[in-house]
Specification:
The structure holds 2 protein chains of 2 kinds. Chain A is mainly alpha-helical. Chain A has helices at about 5-15, 20-40, 75-80, 100-110, and strands at about 85, 90. In chain A, strands 1-2 form a two-stranded antiparallel sheet. The radius of gyration of chain A is 24 Å and the shape is flat. Chain A starts with a helix and ends with a helix. Chain B is α/β, with parallel strands linked by helices. Chain B has 2 domains: about 10-305 and about 380-480, Amidase signature (AS) domain (Amidase signature (AS) enzymes), CATH 3.90.1300; about 305-380, no CATH class. The relative contact order of chain B is 0.15. The chains are: A mainly alpha, B alpha/beta. Chains A and B meet through α1 and α2 of A and α8, α9, α10 and α11 of B.
């Protein structure tokens, strides 16, 4: 069950992880070894066996009322962010310059 | 490893040697003040933590609001650094949260604060609780107080080492595949993983949500019993918290184990288990028999598949839980990024260590298109078979007894290059997490100067039987009364 460096790159992309060339080689080898080990599970006949996704058999879909409540810690929450502006989380531009008219307008207004 | 093998019997005149129930007596008689206890622990941390590195953050000031509690006792507690503590940095042993200060307390912390406990410091751990040796921390490894060249176990290695070395009277850890029990065993202290759903996970940084539980690490079973009582209970903030659970009654002495039926699963004593560990555990079972219990060999036939199922399920859940570290709302953000996508990828590259990346990769792989059925779904079906093994055992036994770890503490650096060798350290603790059962590890002997742990596994929500049996064992033995002589410490 070998995981090729190409597969490693694809999985890293799915996980939004950038890997170095060294990490790609290392993970290709190590993931292959781990998957070879867990292949042991193929020995078992699991036909007709229900999966156990969680062990609390009496609980399913626990809901709470969808209510507005105040968060006194809100300021602290936003301040924990690496970059904030006007009480919001700030991130790098999502769309290339020019395509982002709404945000460009807001920039001017701000 | 350097031959250290230095240990001593506990000294009743030394505050940092006492268990909390012994401290309580001194506090209630007014012989010591809470501030004295606090200062004794801070001094002890200054004395030995350069060698052990059990703490990531120490809170050296006695909380002023606890100065006058009208005689109600106040105790410090060390907390694993993946449990949210309001206003106290919580890093998960990771660069990505190295400067994160939580705006709220975990429910477990609130419950302890209501009972007069306060946070003495945050303990070292494998990054995001992924590891069995405490070597995967961005803040450097913790060392084992019994031998500085050995690992303390993991991932709650800092909590276990702190309690063993007298740097904290008791501590909280978290257990996903053995992370409370295995370090407790390797450091010669008591550690308990509660039944899944017993203790709220609100404010415990999620690793594998269907397996994680917060649990106590203590010097003896009595203290473990006290902390379990404080921690357990339904919490509406955790949708997997069990409603209607029976509370745990107060601790009491246990003289006899008449009528208690113990199964000893042969798969837990097979090849791979060190001879000295097997001998100590079988001897401990003999002690339980002398106390009136009946013990016999039994079988949990799917045990050998536990490790493989776990290393699919836990990374799968982790890969999903750790998606939240993207540099947007908290933690580290790269300063190299020009686009949003770059920011995600570089933040995660810079922020996560090798083992965390490995597990995210493994988890993403087994959940990805084409592999889900072959790996993830099959592992969850095998989990059902493992649960059934235990259910069959409960028809005949009140609890199971086994080693906690196949070996005593292993040398630092021995397994870091080989992930599979490291994963094997949890082979005897993992099935309990997969089945959501309660289990407790307590000291039951020494091999080459290093502690051996006895693991007791119980029925769901029957922590009480485990605590009673463990209490009876400690009343009949003195393994829990030995303390390590740490590194360059001068003998008193």
């Amino acid at each position: 069950m070998a995981v090729s460096p190409e597969e490693v790159r694809h999985v890293a992309w799915l996980a939004r992880l950038r890997l170095t060339a060294h990490e790609e080689r290392l993970f290709s080898e190590q993931l292959s070894n781990i998957l070879a080990h867990v292949a042991k599970l193929q020995e078992l006949d699991v036909e007709g066996i229900e999966p156990t996704f969680h062990v609390l058999k009496t609980l399913s879909n626990v809901y709470r009322p969808d209510e507005v409540r105040s968060w006194p810690e809100l300021r602290e929450v936003v301040q924990a962010a690496p970059q904030q502006r006007d009480g919001l989380f700030a991130v790098p531009r999502v769309l290339p310059e020019g395509e982002d008219e709404v945000s460009a307008k807001n920039e001017k207004d701000g | 490893m350097r031959c250290q093998q230095r240990m001593r019997k506990m000294d009743e005149g030394c505050l940092t040697d006492l268990s909390v129930h012994q401290l309580r007596v001194l506090l209630e008689r007014g012989e010591v003040a809470p501030r004295d206890v606090h200062e004794a622990y801070v001094r002890r941390i200054e004395e030995v933590d350069d060698q052990l590195n059990a703490y990531i953050t120490v809170c050296p000031d006695f909380p002023p609001e606890l100065e006058n509690r009208h005689g109600r006792p106040v105790f410090p507690v060390a907390v694993k650094d993946n449990i949210m503590t309001r206003g106290i940095r919580t890093t998960c042993g990771s660069r990505i949260l190295a400067r994160f200060i939580p705006p709220y307390d975990a429910t477990a912390i609130l419950r302890l604060k209501e009972r007069g406990l306060y946070v003495l410091g945050k303990t070292n751990m494998d990054e995001f609780a992924m590891g069995s040796s405490c070597e995967n921390s961005a803040f450097g490894p913790t060392r084992n107080p019994w031998n500085l060249d050995a690992v303390p176990g993991g991932s709650s290695g800092g909590s276990a080492a702190a309690v063993a070395a007298g740097e904290a009277p008791w501590a909280l850890g978290s257990d996903t595949g053995g992370s409370v029990r295995q370090p407790a065993a390797l450091c010669g202290v008591v550690g308990m993983k509660p039944t899944y759903g017993r203790v709220s996970r609100f404010g415990l940084v999620a690793f594998a949500s269907s397996l994680d539980q917060i649990g106590p690490i203590t010097r003896d079973v009595w203290d473990c019993w006290v902390l379990m009582r404080a921690l357990c209970g339904h919490d509406p903030l955790d949708s997997t918290s069990a409603p209607g659970q029976a509370p745990i009654p107060p601790p009491q002495s246990v003289e006899s184990l008449g009528g208690v039926r113990i199964g000893v699963p042969r798969e837990y004593l097979g090849p791979g288990v060190e001879d000295a560990v097997r001998d100590a555990v079988l001897k401990a079972v003999g002690v339980l028999e002398e106390l009136g219990a009946r013990a016999e060999e039994c079988s949990l036939p799917h045990t050998e598949y536990g490790l493989s199922a776990y290393y699919i399920i836990a990374p799968a859940e982790a890969s999903s839980n750790l998606a939240r570290y993207d540099g947007v709302r908290y933690g580290h953000r790269t300063c190299q990024a020009s686009s949003l996508l770059d920011m995600y990828e570089l933040t995660r590259q810079e922020g996560f260590g090798a083992e965390v990346k490995r597990r995210i990769m493994l988890g993403t792989y087994v959940l990805s298109a084409g592999y889900y059925d072959a790996y993830y779904l099959r592992a969850q079906k095998v989990r059902t078979l493992i649960c059934r093994d235990f259910e069959r055992a409960w028809a005949r036994y009140d609890l199971l007894a086994a080693p906690t770890s196949p070996t005593v503490a292993f040398p630092l650096g021995e397994r870091t290059a080989d992930p599979l060798a490291m994963y094997m350290a949890d082979v005897l603790t993992i099935p309990v997490n997969l089945a959501g059962l309660p289990a407790l590890s307590l000291p039951c002997g020494f091999a080459r100067g290093l502690p051996v742990g006895l693991q007791l596994i119980g029925r769901p929500f029957d922590e009480l039987t485990l605590l009673r049996v463990a209490q009876a064992f400690q009343q009949a033995t003195d393994y829990h009364l030995y303390r390590p002589v740490v590194g360059g410490e001068v003998d008193g």
